# Entry
Amino acid sequence: MQPKVLIAGFEPFAGETLNPSWQVARALHGTQLDDEVTIQAVKLPCIFKQSLLCLEQAVNQLQPAVVILLGLAAGCSQLMLEKIASNYIDAAIADNAGQQPRNALTASHGPAAYFSNLPLNAILQALHLQHIPAQLSLSAGSYVCNHSFYGLMHLIKNQYASIKGGFIHLPYLPGQVLNKPGIASMALETQIEAVKICIEVSLQQHADQLIA
# Structure
């Protein structure tokens, strides 16, 4: 059976009319890599509970080899390769259902955090070789992005040990910052190429080894 890759992006939130994470995921949907790997995309609601339900349904249905979640990090100038998913919710703004949980947990009986098991160091090197700005990040925040990241890693830990999974934050698209002076952005084409590189490296490389 041919391996599959699941890419998830989010619907717009916080008054935005689009979300680069879904624009990138949608552009990659149906792409064949080396005639062996199919990329499938799913749009996640920017709603705490529903985002995890939608993600888990997609994973169960597709049984992918790799899952990469994408999200918007307003104001960042490069790809942020998230290393740590924390079991903590503290929403500075309400989600798209009007819910705003504060000082809460994603999983009441889960560990404090999970590490991404994507080969982040190899991904970072590959992106830099193509002159695409990127860096490792040690905090995915405390909003729906981190909540979904933690939920994914919790699912992998408990049900799908063979899946490689992680989260990447993306910058604004240029059209989103026309009325936001001084705020960084990145062209959609660059973001698409960057995420494609992330997928290819994730399929080829083992996860980063932690030193005890």
About this structure: The mean pLDDT is 96. Strands lie at 4-10, 32-33, 37-44, 66-72, 79-82, 84-86, 113-115, 134-137, 164-170.
